[in-house]
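User: Before I run my own analysis I want an independent prediction to cross-check against. Here's the chain; please return only the structure tokens and, at the end, one sentence I can use as a sanity check.
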Amino acid sequence: MVELLIALFLGSLITLTFYQLLITQNNTHARYDEAAEMQQNLRVAIDRISRDAMLAGLGKPSWSTINGMDASPWYNAGNGYRAYRIGVSGSNNTLDLIGCFNTIVSHLSADGAVGSTAINLNAGEGANFNTTTLQDISIGAAENAKVMSVTGDSLTIDTNPSVGGNQGLALLEPANTYACLVTWVTYSLGANNTLYIDSHQGQGNQAVAQDISAMTLSVTGKLLTINLTGSTANPDRTTGQYITSQVTNQVLLRN
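Assistant: Structure tokens:
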């Protein structure tokens, strides 16, 4: 009986040791997995913001209503239509940008003559624009227009909406010249350590990346510095501490 009790005790001790080892390994793997996910989210976030910041100002218009949304409190003639703004009400963790950010780019199917108030796009590309949320376009990065109507792949445009009546093209725009959508986007850090983007086209905030606990932005001259801090979703079960990491990038702004 004594030998049996000793065997049971030793067996239980070995089982408990292996159980504790298994828990430790599981905790370690979970911590590494969460840290890897946090690092990936940081890379996605910094790449997305940096890409859009480099394009800010591309095709910017000389008016303040972008696709039906009023950006005039910061994007105006007094500011030289500067296509970026950091922070609102004293904070520096939001970023507003205006430019051609969409990877979908349309092309003219025929020459656009000087004075013309209509341009024709390649087959199927008229669906990329409308007269409300997809209204502002840049044509060859040389001139801007608002879409006044869409008929198939033909757009009626106004290159100077501040003047009554539709104004035509100021330049000859050759066939295959690109026409890109100009958008106003706002990056902000919201609840639950989530980085959001609002394209001001009616969808509201859309998640870009999670596990982003802090974002700070600064501009020196035309050099934008982006600092992001990431934090794991859950604390370490042993220490109760979160794993954090930081990434930094600098982008030369167009204007």
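Sanity check: The helical segments are 2-55.
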